[in-house]
Design brief:
With 207 residues, this protein is of the alpha+beta class. It is built from 6 helices and 4 strands; from the N terminus they run ββββαααααα. The chain has a domain at 69-206. The chain is globular and about 45 Å long. Keywords: Repeat, Secreted.
Length: 207
């Protein structure tokens, strides 16, 4: 069963073990915005599990509710998409349970791809100026989600509802379901290096 949509809220993070009160999530000395409640809780529990077991096993449902689908790049979020890439979640294989959650793993791969490809668009020397960078980022986003849909249809399970749509209707569907539309970073998080599992070739003729 796929996770339901999650209401987005803004929280301010301050201490690592104390409490959540009103609109403030307190954790260890950081003064960083969280883009929703689940991510603040995820940071706390993942740190506890990591300390206790030497690894970081986290609930894929929580991850996917908080980060998938990635937001459609736009004039309004391009700056954040480029600047905060290292502060947004990645999903290496070891963070998933050993069995099940295949749909979450496919979504995690899509996020890993778009984050890697956004880095190419923003800092890889592929583009000149914000106009080209945005064009590249949009193409990377569409390509990553296209691969996600191809992988969804390769299974015997129900596909993501947005994958059932075509063309602009599909992209609008993903865009409206993005839990982090402004590409804000996760509180205190530093992304691991995850090489993309496939290449992205930007075509400037699409701009």
């Amino acid at each position: 069963m796929r996770p339901a949509a999650v209401k987005k809220d803004i929280y301010v993070v301050k201490t690592l073990y104390v409490y959540t009160s009103g609109n403030e999530q307190r954790t260890s000395g950081w003064h960083v915005r969280c883009y929703n409640t689940l991510l603040c809780l995820l940071l706390f529990w993942s740190s506890v599990l990591s300390t206790a077991s030497g690894g970081q096993i986290i609930d894929p449902n929580t991850l996917m509710e908080s980060a998938f689908p990635p937001a459609r790049p736009s004039v309004n979020n391009l700056n954040s998409a480029c600047l905060y890439g290292n502060g947004r979640p990645r999903y290496p294989a070891y963070c998933f349970p050993p069995s099940g959650y295949a749909y979450a793993q496919r979504a995690g791969k899509a996020i890993n791809r778009i984050e890697s490809w956004l880095g190419q668009c923003c800092y890889g020397g592929l583009t000149t100026g914000n106009g080209q960078t945005l064009c590249c980022a949009k193409q990377a986003w569409e390509t990553a989600l296209s691969y996600f849909c191809i992988e969804e249809y390769s299974t015997m399970t129900l596909v993501h509802e947005c994958c059932e749509k075509k063309g602009e209707e599909r992209w609008n569907c993903f865009e409206t379901r993005a839990p982090n539309p402004s590409y804000q970073p996760l509180c205190g998080y530093i992304a691991p290096m995850i090489p993309p599992d496939m290449n992205f070739n930007w075509d400037p003729k699409t701009c």
